[in-house]
Predict the structure.
Amino acid sequence: MRQSSPEATAARAEPGTEHPEITYIGCARCGTQIAGLDGRYACSGCGWVNEWTEGHRPLPTAGRRRR
Ligand SMILES: [Zn+2]
């Protein structure tokens, strides 16, 4: 067993903060598995990005436009 460093513990603890959830998906274009936050993905291999609207929650800053 190795000791856990205090730094790692401190970095993790964020009580009360809603941090983004890390999720994984296969790139729609090249199939590489990529990681994303809250359902938003950007492939570093081919540059594919998914629609931000596919994210798990709306972007906090942008106001909603009516169409
Ligand atoms: Zn890709």
